[in-house]
UniProtKB/TrEMBL annotation:
Transmembrane segments: none annotated. The gene is atpH. InterPro entries: ATPase_OSCP/d_CS (IPR020781), ATPase_OSCP/dsu (IPR000711). Keywords: ATP synthesis, Cell membrane, CF(1), Hydrogen ion transport, Ion transport, Membrane, Transport. It is found in: Cell membrane; Membrane. PROSITE patterns: ATPASE_DELTA (PS00389). This is ATP synthase subunit delta. GO terms for cellular component: plasma membrane; proton-transporting ATP synthase complex. It comes from Natronoglycomyces albus.
Amino acid sequence: MSLTGRESIEAGQVALEEFSRTADAAQIAECADELLAVTRFLADQPRLRRALSDPARDASDRQGLARTLIGGHIGSGAASVVAELVKGRWGSAGELLNGVESLAISGLLEAGSAEGNLAEIEDQLFRFKQVVDGDNELSGTLGSSGPGAEGRAYLVGKLLDGKANPVTVKLAAAAAYGIGGRSFLAALEHLVEAAAAKREERVAYVTVARPLSEEDERKLAAKLTLLYGMPVGVKLTVDPSIVGGIRVQVGSDLYDGTVERRLTEARLTLAGR
């Protein structure tokens, strides 16, 4: 994203935070829902996206257009965020669309934080990703791109309804549309990390051949916290195919001490002789 686009999102984030300071969790969630609706609307209206992000138009003109076509259908909180966004400058119309979507996600995370449920939401998103990733049919259905996003979002809602926090359901359904152009699984991972960042933590994706004890998991989290200088939450996946050892990924950092990796290296070495 362009520098001007990032600055515009920051201005929209300030407007969202100002609204959130005097709103309760339900009101914040409603504002986020409305921003998601604006995202879907703009996704279907390329000419309007271009008009609302056109640098040749005066900012007040863009805001007036947004008030006329969008403002009357959403609450004051979402309207103030949209007005701030269209006032800003964007590198492209697509950046504006991504900006509205990112603030909708930010609003849902803020609603979860206001309820004190952010850690639960983070864990539920991760566990749902594991379920989808482990089911080829479900992964194929939800991982498809192009038309049908609304149906995929509906399926996600049906799968999670009554089994997860309402904010988790909304976030996972949003992932079905491909947040920022990501695949479904990548969007879920992005949401897990965004929830952790909201709690001022990082995420370590840990793969082992056999489950770790609670004590070993705590020790690993403590070592990673010391290494990164901030709290690190462990997201554990058991995969017998790695044979033994452990694989840890934190952001772009990968620590692979698995038997699978060592066997692969040995095969490559022998093949090179």
